[in-house]
Design brief:
It is an enzyme of class 2 (transferase). The protein has 229 residues and is α/β, with parallel strands linked by helices. It is 39% helix and 16% strand. The chain has a seven-stranded mixed sheet with strand order 3-2-1-4-6-5-7, with helices on both faces.
Length: 229
């Protein structure tokens, strides 16, 4: 039997983290849920700790260090026991239960990594530049075409994560990891899920966020081209 750990990096998610945890805590395949509160200024840690389950372990960072740092912090704990490790966002709410669809292909040894493929966004976001950059960069470097390269909802066999000294930092984390995983000849399968989470709109904040994503992806792709030439 596999031991499965789920890592949830969370920053100011007091309104969603309880529903996220409640929806996955009774999934029998999941043995451990590690919440890493990334220096939240709200009550994310307190709310997470209030959810009754022996599976839940809440790690509270004193300051906001970013998603990559939080994932690495959670991995230090997960790698001690787990054979299969998953990443989920804290704002999935009740739809986090869809993680079962990501776990099954791994348990059945159909692939090494699963990535959640979300349904189309309900509100208009960006103009597609970031998604296209991510998709085309992965295809250019690996020959594999994936449509959900930016999705952070992923399940891994432990041996996949062992190729990384640490999870990359910044908004290019998913693209950088995907390139390395495929270059190391691991198999990735995209799985359609009915998950929803906070969407970035077409306001100033949204465009600033996507601008940062675009810059970080460009940066990580340049780095990967040097590493894999």
């Amino acid at each position: 039997m596999s031991y499965i750990s789920i890592i949830i990096p969370a920053y100011n998610e007091e309104n969603k983290i309880k529903d996220t945890l409640e929806s996955i805590k009774d999934i029998k395949e999941i043995d451990e849920i590690i919440v890493v509160d990334d220096g939240s200024s709200d009550k994310t840690s307190e709310v997470a700790k209030s959810v009754k389950s022996d599976k839940i372990n809440v790690i509270t960072q004193s300051q906001n260090r970013g998603k990559g740092y939080a994932l690495n912090n959670g991995l230090k704990e997960a790698m001690k026991k787990a054979d299969i490790i998953g990443f989920l966002d804290g704002d999935l709410g009740n739809t986090a239960s869809e993680v079962e669809k990501l776990i099954t292909p791994i348990i059945n040894n159909e692939c090494d990594v699963t990535i959640a493929k979300f349904p189309p966004a309900k509100k208009k976001g960006g103009l597609g530049f970031v998604k296209n950059l991510a998709k085309e960069s992965v295809k250019e470097m690996t020959g594999v075409e994936l449509t959900s390269t930016l999705s952070g909802q992923r399940i891994f066999k432990k041996e996949v994560l062992e190729i990384f000294d640490e999870i990359p930092f910044g908004y290019g984390v998913e693209v950088g990891m995907t390139i390395d995983i495929l270059k190391n000849n691991f198999k990735i399968e995209e799985v359609l899920v009915n998950m929803t989470h906070s969407e970035t709109g077409r306001d100033l904040k949204g465009f600033i966020h996507r601008g940062k994503q675009f810059y970080h992806i460009k940066k990580v792709v340049r780095q990967k081209k040097k590493e894999w030439r």
